[in-house]
Design a protein that fits this description.
CATH class of one domain: Alpha Beta
CATH architecture of one domain: 3-Layer(aba) Sandwich
CATH superfamily of one domain: ANL, N-terminal domain
Shape: globular
Structural class: alpha/beta
Number of helices: 23
Largest sheet: 5 strands, parallel
Strand content: 15-25%
Amino acid sequence: MNQSLEAAEGLGSVPALLQRNATRFGGKPAYREKEYGIWQSWTWAETAAEIEALALGLINLGVNEGDFIAVIGRNRPYFYWAIVAAQSVGAVPVPLYQDASADEMAYVMEHCGARFAIVQDQEQVDKIIEIQDGLHQFEHMIYIDPRGMRKYDHHKLHEFSHIQQQGRAARDEFITDLQARRGKLNYDSICVMLYTSGTTGKPKGVVLSNRNIIEASKSSSGFDTLGPGEEVLAYLPMAWVGDFIFSIGQAYWCGFCVNCPESPETMMTDLREIGPTYYFAPPRVFETQLTNVMIRMEDAGRFKKWLFDRFMAHARKVGPAVLDGKSVGVWDRLKYMLGNILVYGPLKNTLGLSRVRVGYTAGEAIGPEIFEFYRSLGINLKQLYGQTEASVFITLQPDGEVRNDTVGVPAPGVELRIAENGEVFYRSPGTFEYYYKNETSTKDTKDTEGWVATGDAGFIDEDTGHLRIIDRAKDVGKMASGALFAPKYVENKLKFFPNILEAVVFGAGREECVAFINIDLTAVGNWAERNNIGYASYQELAGHPQVLKAIRAHVDEVNRSVAQDPMLSGCQIHRFVVLHKELDADDGEMTRTRKVRRRIVEEKYSDLLSALYDGLDEIFTTTEVTYEDGRKGAISATLKIVDAAVLPVPEHKVAAE
């Protein structure tokens, strides 16, 4: 493949972009981090110096070209520096989920053969010490936070700042080596290896080159006219491709500032203080924010709630049209302006989204009602469709062409095709190189012409050219009646309600659809408090008769909505059960990116599924759980099975293809 103009001009790697930014944007902020309530800032010139010191320290420690370096921790400038320092010395950074169990870390680190790890604190150090006997190539660990580390054996355990100090001290000795290693980097060099979430099996190591990351970053930045003045908040897992492309790929291409919050608990406060102009969040974050808004409004006074309801009804009517610059009547526009002063503006400020110029959501399908809520406020929220294997971007929604039922048009440089079975295929400059040590899966996913199977079923709208994703191809099926079965469509409608955190719908090959539902403890707990309802646990609250009644009302409403869709009206939920525990990644029921492992849930709760289809009124069940300290336990409960109201489906709808 021909090198692009940027690669030919010496910008064929992330470290090369860093050198350019240190020269072009030297005095502009590259990173901010909040610590002890105070924002600290590093310019691009300072960032380049910090990364150089660490890179020299890594050479001094014995890091060779081609080595794999695990990076484990929350979003902090030090970890982004570690990634670029690893690239600078010709090594391959491998970010891991910081909340992964020791066993999950062991699999990834042994699979890639990591010789080194850069971690956050004592917790991560202890996890790796627990598994290091099984890591046959592992040698050295570097930690950032020294608290609690004084009495450890430091022969192969090093403080991050000390490695930098050693690098600075040995600069004269190793700078030519570092320059030589950086000089070898090009578009074909490995930029990063990211592991898939493993929804259907063991995670796969996705090898992405500098070509993949830089070309994807360049084209997507051009699509939304991103520039050096953007501000982003880096809070999503560093092991996820989205964070990598936003906080390294696009940040280094454009030269904008990456802001790291103090902690997950302060994220919303930090979001408001930064006021990002470019913002990404998965649907769950937007769902949680909306839940918090609705809880606050339930607690508000009568007049304030009336004002909110009245103006939000108007916003839903004309807000998206105002945002897209479409024609809106004078009175409607004036009323919307008044609503912006009284409701929308203060609400956006509370959410920390007042300055958002471009916002995206992806990872899971977002409920259309949730999506329209944010757009009605005047927030330019759009959808994108992507994968780790695509360096994120497959489709994007252009400004003025945003719809809640599609994921946009092919991103610049991306080609799409739909197979006969409805599966979506793509190819692009961002297409991954290969799965590490997995030639079979590479060939199954990417053919010799570069076309990649997404595993998702969808179609391209003939009128707009936009892609519509129906569901995971493996999850899309037919009901016994022949009607289409697409569980995600229904699940996302259910999750619009603040009371519902998660839903899993079943029905392929069956006469009827049934569902497992998780309540949102924050929203339902707030409701219980307002109504003087006492409860001692999640399990007790989830089984409360009034909670079941409220959830049934939500399911009935979703059924009425689903019945209106000619293609998916057969997916109405006939019966459901509110689970006695939250689905949890530690129990293997979800991935670390919070995607439901549908097959595992189906197997683990097979007794509940049978009860739903056998017509029982209740069932006693016992479920194994994993506590935060790794201990195993079990919880038992008698669960009520609830019937929902189902609308009749006309014959022409049942037969719809």
